[in-house]
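Q&A log
Question type: sequence-to-structure
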Amino acid sequence: MSNPVLTLHVTTVLLSISGFIFRGILHLRDSDLLNRKWLKISPHVNDTLLIISAIILVQQAGLNVLTTPWLQAKIVGLILYIALGMTAFRFAKTKKVRLLAWIGAIIVFSYIVAVAVSKNPLVWLNIL
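Response status: OK
Response body:
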């Protein structure tokens, strides 16, 4: 990767999913580590860098969100990922719902990555 913005983006993607999985495990265990300030702040800092780098990459590539189906799919996936993450970490009343939302978010995240790599919003249909 010779593009430093792409390197930043991929790095923040990896940090984002790693942190999400780690925090999910902590939530499922009702760990006191979740009260650590750095664990509450770092995901927001990382995800801000991720989104900024994504916007820069879209501009560098001269893409139009309104006419690029794979980019639209990533954005819809991102919104679903955020909703499932919020359900898993804030709104779920039971551990079962928390677990299902957490797993669902990880699946959606993997879809977003697959679309990014393939540039195909129907990437999973090609696998099946």
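Response note: The chain has a mean pLDDT of 94.
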